[in-house]
Amino acid sequence: METEFTPWASLGGGMLIGASAVLLMATNGRIAGISGLTSRIFARATGSEARGVSALFVLGLLLAAPLWLLVSGSWPTQWVPSSPVLMALAGLLVGFGATYGNGCTSGHGVCGISRGSGRSIVATATFMATGFVTVLVIRHLIGA
Amino acid sequence: MKQFFALLSGLIFGLGLIVSGMADPAKVLNFLDLFGTWDPSLAFVMGGAIAVTAPGFAWLTRTRQQTFFEGEFHMPTKTDLDPKLLTGSAIFGIGWGLGGFCPGPALTALPMAATGTLIFVPFMLVGMWVARHTPDLRPTPKEGAAS
After folding, report:
1. B86-106 residue pLDDT tens
2. A10 pLDDT higher than 90
3. Could you give the number of structural domains in chain B?
4. Which residue range(s) make up the domain with B104?
5. Among A16, A44, A91, B34, which is most buried by a count of CB atoms within 10 Å?
């Protein structure tokens, strides 16, 4: 199903994401990488200071949609098209891959590229490539 | 006070994901569908985010030794392209293409309680736990081995 091309909203939303990353670094000295922050909440090795920052940041993420509902009167537009079985598999792969590869779209794709990190540029090119190929296979070769 | 800013950063990040359309898996999957119903919006999300983060980080590291609350900047220090980075990123991309969610948007969309999201998030946490307990792919030198 088609979705509307939204260059301005996407650019503006992206700039908010960037502002958040700079704010977190300026005040707490942490990279706004969601997979890193999330997995650190539960990891035994995490120090109490890092755990606190991570938990509060994730709490903020969780409050964004309810705040949106409160102000605008409706939930943001959303459609989760994949089947439950596919979503379970997707969750496993995303959680494992992002943590094993030290970052996801935010940690590598936004913060890492912004620092000019070679590792993050390679990581982003890699997950973009496998993402494109996966959708190609699912939608056009298997036709699911 | 810095705790308040950690919470505020998360909130702004989540609002950014919602405004940009990243929190909608249908839009993410269409971005990845180059040969079908392609929606290039998400390239603008990344462009906008980097356009703010790159100068912001450069300004912070150039002008300050410490955070605004006298804390340390925890900048990543690794520079080598190890097998872990490549394998992990490749696997992450496959999962991203299957569900249309990466970690930030999945958590942001969680309160909206779509069935797919309620399934995705616990499995994502399990995946993270497994990754933290999976050993390195790098061959480790055996202790005491003759060299």
Report:
1. 999 999 999 999 999 999 999
2. yes
3. 1
4. 2-133
5. A91
Whether A18 sits inside 8 A of B50 (CB atoms) is yes
Residues of A in contact with B86 (CB under 8 A): 101, 122-123, 126
Whether B138 is covered by a domain: the verdict is no
Q: Is residue B101, in this structure, part of any structural domain at all?
A: yes
Q: How confident is the model at residue A141 (pLDDT cuts 50, 70, 90)?
A: very high
Q: Is B83 on the interface with A (CB under 8 A)?
A: no
Q: Give the separation between CA A30 and CA B75, rounded to whole angstroms.
A: 7
In a domain, B32, yes or no: yes
Q: In this complex, is the C-beta atom of B50 within 8 Å of any C-beta atom belonging to chain A?
A: yes
pLDDT of residue B146: 47
What is the phi/psi pair of residue B109, to 5°?
Answer: -80, -10
Q: Which residues contact B141 (CB under 8 A, 6 or more apart)?
A: none
Using one digit for the tens of pLDDT, what is the confidence trace for B107-118? 999 999 999 999
Residue A118 burial (CB < 10 Å; 0-12/13-18/19+)? exposed
**Count of C-beta atoms within a 10 Å radius of residue B38:** 15
Q: Does B17 score more than 80 pLDDT?
A: yes
- With a threshold of 0.90, tell me whether the complex ipTM lies above it: yes
Q: How many residues does chain A have?
A: 144
Q: Where are the domains of chain A?
A: 1-77, 80-144
CA distance A125 to chain B (A): 9
Quick one: pLDDT at residue B135? 83
Is B146 contained in some domain? no
Per-residue pLDDT at B142:
53
